[in-house]
Design goal:
alpha/beta, ten-stranded mixed sheet, two-stranded antiparallel ribbon, 37% helix, globular
Length: 278
Amino acid sequence: MKCKSIIIAGLLAASALVPAAKADVLSDIQANKTLRCATFADVPPFASPDVKTREMVGFDVDLCNAIAREMGVKAEVKPVSVEARVPEVKLGRVDITVANLAYTQSRAEQIQFSDPYYLAKEMLIVPADDAGKAKADYVGQRIASTKGSTSEMSIKLNKSEPLTFQDTASAYLAVQQGKARGMVANTMTTTKLVNESKTKGKEMRMIPDPMLYQPIGIGMAKDQPALTAKVNEVLRKLDTSGELNQIWDKWLGPNTEYKMTRTDKVVPLSELKFDPIP
């Protein structure tokens, strides 16, 4: 009997060393009838609280709802900080992140990216009377951005000094107050800020050459081939049907303050020509 107990104990100890099989996230989503989706907490036009209803609205919110609808489930939007977009997926607190998430090598080591749905640019804006003309003129200079973003990475790659904040508004205020020489953000955000500056605060202008090109995709847990395939399938469907462009036009298109036209198509990352950042 003692020998048998020892054998059982040994088997139990050995089984504890064997990693449990990863849950099938797509099956869980379908079983729970809910797609948990991380978005920005307050970065318009991607995701921010509506001033009247306090409900989350924006491009990423609409895209999350469209993906959930195509999966036959309901979207549950979870606002997160910029730097929490990857950890929330990695820790399993959300199923996907739809938050203007740019592909980087370090992020790709932690999570799975969908096929990109557009190619974004990180742009530098400075006061209108600033003497600089190209991004090379800002090497070694203090430049503001949101913390943990690809904007911050692009500043470092330019050999400038990043001054980081939790949100875009604080980064912009730092430039307005002269605490930073300029600010880096995506094209939509910088275009809006430059336009607003013409009637409020210190006037700003955009440096023409991009600080960085970056494919934007949806973040998911690694080793979930079924979920990855489903998200890519839905993105291609939304792109082909024109709904993705409709969502884009609603928040970023020619009739908005951003006046941007989406010309990109949902294609595999391998088909894009870009230099991935670390």
